[in-house]
Amino acid sequence: LGLMASFSWQSGKRGESGGIPGGMSWRDDVKATYWSLMAGPAVRVNELVSLYALAGAGTGRAEVKERISMPGYNGRFTGSERRTGFAWGAGVQFNPVENVVIDLGYEGSKVGAAKLNGVNVGVGYRF
Length: 127
Prior knowledge:
By secondary structure, the chain is mostly beta strands. It has a single domain, classed as Porin (Beta Barrel), CATH 2.40.160. 0% of the residues lie in helices and 85% in strands. It has no helices and six strands. A hairpin with a 5-residue loop joins β4 and β5 (100-111).
């Protein structure tokens, strides 16, 4: 029986813009960031394979910038929100050669109303 720890991070941006006849235009930019920190037990099945389960916390942050322009008015709005929730994961590690680890795992979390799910693939050094 061993201990496994995991840190994951991801970020993305999206922007949209448009307008209508008469001079009104708008632009929205959204940036989202998520990270998690988890730990849990790892069990060696044989010389080549280990299984693990993880639990911890995940934090998501969203930033919004909006600009609206029309004759006689130019407006801006900015806002951000951060939420933290429960994160969990499970996976399998393969040891093709001594001290080298190939990892395939699942991670899920619920941060506020958002449910996040992902597959993580990695290569690492086992010590």
